[in-house]
Specification:
By secondary structure, the chain is mainly α. It has one domain (3-79): ACP-like (Non-ribosomal Peptide Synthetase Peptidyl Carrier Protein, Chain A). 57% of the residues lie in helices and 0% in strands. The chain is built from four helices and no strands. It has helices at residues 3-17, 32-36, 40-54, 69-79.
């Protein structure tokens, strides 16, 4: 799976949780939860949306590996 396709799916999932989000303003090296102000339920909905769209489950034990946009895209690329 190519990184652009993964990035598009991540954007869609984030916009589904935070429609007011300005994607261009996200810093790819910062915590997604802090950048988007996701509480724990929003984070779980985001992870589930990615699972549905990409077919890749992210176990809770891997959350530290996907805490930034860059890390998330790399992780999903390896799993996809």
């Amino acid at each position: 799976m190519n990184p652009n396709m993964i990035r598009d799916e991540v954007w869609k999932a984030l916009k589904g949780i935070a429609p007011e989000l300005e994607i261009e303003q996200l810093r790819p090296d910062r915590s997604l939860r802090e950048e988007v102000d996701l509480d724990s339920m929003d984070w779980l909905r985001f992870i589930e949306a990615l699972n549905r769209s990409l077919g890749i489950a992210i176990p809770e034990s891997d959350y530290q590996q996907v805490d930034t946009l860059d890390k998330l895209i790399t992780y999903l690329g390896k799993k996809g």
